[in-house]
Sequence to fold (375 residues):
Amino acid sequence: MKIAFDAKRITHNATGLGNYSRFIVNSLSASFPEHTYQLYTPGRGKEALRKRIEERPSVSFHYPEGRFDKLFPSLWRTSGLTATLREEHADLFHGLSNEIPMNLKQNGIPAIVTIHDLIFLRYPRLYKPIDRRIYTYKFKQACLRSDKIIAISRQTMRDIRDFFHIPESKIEVVYQGCDPVFGQAIPEEAKAAIREKYRINGPYILYVGSIEERKNLLLLIKALKGLKEDISVIAIGRRTPYTDRVETYARENKLSGRVRILHNIPFSELPAFYQMATLFVYPSFFEGFGIPILEAQLAGIPVIAATGSCLEEAGGPSALYTDPDSEQELRGLIESVLHDPKLAESMRAGGREHTRRFTPEAIANDLMRLYKKLD
Fold:
């Protein structure tokens, strides 16, 4: 089978949709090398990201070739690509990031689209009106034009059904996974080098994700204020204007020395940050899935997440969950983990067991079963 992918996020996005897209292609090419995987992207993007696609004979990158397509890569991605797919006799197209070309069905090319979340409809105040309109149009059209829709969680499936009025029979839930590197033990000397480089002197609670309002880092900093334990917070993620609110609160409450916000951390260093942490806290109001939770569990650290979206799906029964509006509840859960070594160990062991549902092999098998239904 010759499977084509929208690979823009693979070459252009270092986190989020990029990580998902690279995980999917690497998992499929490893588990099913007999098929061909063609990655169509409007530009070469970043070499470091391309290199995170494992080199295999079955995988190849493809870029716009004609003069017009090179001048207008966005048009190529949304419509011009179809002619190339027809000429290449693609058996299937998978839009990995909420979009597919407009005219696949007319050209007899089966299509699948992965929808990650509809947060822009649930929390419209967090998005510019023009962005909401564009996302709504693109995502809904992709759902209507595709033969099958992949939702990355049951929460996302319900949102597609309720907001876009798509029948559940058209939607398949195929969970996300995370890079196995997070479960590979980091040598002590490598950890020591990270501690020295970033001046990490004691135990810390880790948060990984964009520093934005929806992800609710401020709740963790408020919970930290009442903790008597000598422990700090390290937050790793892209800065947004919300970061100023977090830093202002920390400064006004004399917590600046216990709160570190880091960004542009190399991917290769993330596993060490996870494995050295005492606890991982992810208090987001709403997510499409929550890959950092899996990364933390695979790294072997206890996880506390928030109720209200799909984080219980991501974290399973071995994580703890807090009301995303209650700093007191979060503080109590953190204290219970810090004070009870048996609880912490059971969360670590249960978390590792839970991640077996999300291995590259398991995700690849789920996807290939779906592909074969359409072939």
About this structure: The mean pLDDT is 95. Residues 129-145 form the longest helix (17 residues). The CA atoms of residues 87 and 367 lie 25 Å apart. The chain has 17 helices and 13 strands.
